[in-house]
Write a structure and sequence with these properties.
The chain has two domains: 4-120 and 174-210, Translation factors (Elongation Factor Tu (Ef-tu), domain 3, Beta Barrel), CATH 2.40.30.10; 121-149 and 163-170, no CATH class. Helices cover 7% and strands 37% of the residues. The protein has helices at 41-44, 61-66, 126-130, and strands at 4-16, 22-29, 33-39, 48-55, 75-81, 93-94, 104-109, 122-124, 168-170, 175-186, 191-195, 205-210. The chain has a six-stranded antiparallel β-barrel with strand order 1-2-11-10-7-12. Strands 5-4-3-6 form a four-stranded antiparallel β-sheet. Strands 8-9 form a two-stranded antiparallel ribbon. It is globular, with a radius of gyration of 23 Å.
Length: 216
């Protein structure tokens, strides 16, 4: 059986526990997923299962040929995941039943090719992008409040080191949140409710997998 599924971030809401405690949750639509390809060690050099999500009819001829064994017209998003335990078959449909209430999962945004990552903030300065404190606010400093300061010496080393934290593109990156608790699973609607927030905008594509660093 696969240990991850492709899904969509629906948004945030809150649910109440048995003792009346309000818990903020993120709602993830994690199905249906279809097994579109099985990678084997003998043929491909590694083992994996390719899953497809989000039905569509707008496909190219090679894409239609790749998915001809499935019962759906086409799938918009394809992604490879690991599989352990029970074997799966091409065309098999998977849903939220893969996960159980109370277990820990990892949620990644930006992992599927062609999908957005965390929310993009555009070009940002060092104060917003890296949390710099800025320059002094007094003693005649009138235009250095949000400046980055020195980025290197002139004679030695005579250049700017790679990786220097400077202004630039902020956001729209691949991000993973570890060990989120599954508050509830609704298999009939293919919904998984995880405790806390998940990066990315509403309707963003995510990959939810069984936690790899969960404490036993």
């Amino acid at each position: 059986m696969v240990n991850a599924l492709i899904g969509r971030k629906i948004g945030m809401t809150q649910v109440f526990t048995e003792i009346g405690e309000a818990v903020g949750v993120t709602v993830l639509e994690v199905g249906p997923n279809y097994v579109s390809q099985i990678k084997t060690l003998e043929r491909d050099g590694y083992e994996a299962v390719q899953l497809g999500f989000d039905e569509t009819k707008k496909l190219s001829k090679p894409e239609r040929g790749h998915l001809k064994a499935l019962s759906v017209p086409g799938l918009r998003h394809l992604h490879e995941v690991q599989a352990t335990g029970e074997p799966v078959e091409i065309g098999q449909e998977l849903g939220a039943g893969v996960f159980e209430k109370g277990e820990k999962v990892d949620v990644t945004v930006g992992a599927v090719n062609g999908t957005a990552g965390s929310k993009g903030k555009g070009f940002a300065g060092t104060v917003k992008r890296h949390g710099f404190a800025g320059g002094p606010k007094t003693h005649g400093q009138s235009d250095r409040h949000r400046a980055p300061g020195s980025i290197g010496a002139s004679s030695t080393p005579g250049r700017v080191f790679k990786g220097m934290r400077m202004s630039g593109q902020m956001g729209n990156k691949r991000r993973t949140v570890l060990n989120l608790e599954v508050v509830d699973v609704l298999p009939d609607r293919n919904l998984v409710l995880v405790k806390g927030g998940v990066p990315g905008a509403k309707n963003g594509i995510v990959v939810i997998r069984k936690a790899v660093k969960a404490r036993k």
